[in-house]
Design a protein that fits this description.
By secondary structure, this protein is mostly beta strands. The protein has one helix and six strands, in the order H-E-E-E-E-E-E. The longest helix is centred in the N-terminal third of the chain and has 8 residues, at 2-9.
């Protein structure tokens, strides 16, 4: 019964508003970011024809060179250079490479506020 009397006699409760007591403020935030990108490049080049090339110095090369032709030195005993390349249809070159790019960034943000 005492509780009932206390409830009837008690006054209602009200919330008081909260007012900040600061006048200025500063907030600083720092962000660090690292981005790493790896690129992998694979290139395969194909040839669909047959080719034959010959070059050199101090070499007698006929007008229509062909594999197995009789190539002779112009001045026997003198220095010479000779190169022949024969390519058939198929893979002519393969390129494989990778590269990594790393980017680091650092950002500082400062906010100033007043009341």
């Amino acid at each position: 019964m005492r509780w009932l009397i206390l409830l009837l006699v008690a006054s209602p409760v009200q919330a008081a508003s909260v007012v900040p007591n600061f006048t200025t403020g500063v907030v600083t935030s720092e962000t660090t970011t690292r981005t790493e990108v790896t690129e992998i490049i694979n290139v395969v080049e194909y040839s669909n024809a047959t080719s034959y090339t010959v070059n050199g110095t101090n070499i007698n090369i006929p007008a229509n060179p062909f594999p197995g032709a009789n190539y002779t030195q112009i001045d026997p005993g003198a220095p010479f250079q000779f190169s022949e390349t024969s390519m058939t249809p198929g893979i002519s070159s393969v390129t494989d490479m990778s590269r990594t790019t790393i980017t680091d960034s650092f950002t500082t943000t400062t906010s100033v506020f007043t009341q």
